[in-house]
Amino acid sequence: GAGVSQSPSNKVTEKGKDVELRCDPISGHTALYWYRQRLGQGLEFLIYFQGNSAPDKSGLPSDRFSAERTGESVSTLTIQRTQQEDSAVYLCASSPTSGTADTQYFGPGTRLTVL
Amino acid sequence: AQSVTQLDSHVSVSEGTPVLLRCNYSSSYSPSLFWYVQHPNKGLQLLLKYTSAATLVKGINGFEAEFKKSETSFHLTKPSAHMSDAAEYFCVVSDSGGGADGLTFGKGTHLIIQP
Fold it and tell me: Which residues of B touch A97 (CB under 8 A)?
């Protein structure tokens, strides 16, 4: 079946511009996660959605970052007034529920470069 | 609180020799533990997971890991390395009843396979 998809795969933008990244989770998965992976580093949690509950935004690094999810489907991560330190690969993952034993299925990521 | 320590940032082995990637964790609860692999320019893929069943877990591509509670370890092994195993490997612990707060990624181990 179809896995998690993300678009665009690559995005180059100028400092100060806004960008929007999209994630399509696996159908039926109620939990959706966004992570950031800077070059040569591990994953940094950004935000988490579980069903129709309020999202856990505890990982967002600044108020320039926001995310939305429509029901249990598509999610968009928006970065306003991008800065060079925002350059990273942004990964989305989904899982059937939010249980500790649930496997997270990752998308291929969006590579963001801020010039 | 929980944490993950991947003891080696880089591991280099010759093709056909055993692989050992070390991971230690700390957890206040009964954890679930995962190993993910990330090949260059590809998404994260689950190798295997431990969820309180058998302590020796077999995964894909000949990898296995053993959960040792007394040593708080979850080392990843493979008897014979293949060139295609060259990738970044992440150890992940999940223990707080679900949600993104319960997921902690290690910083990763870069596995290099020498011909």
Answer: 98
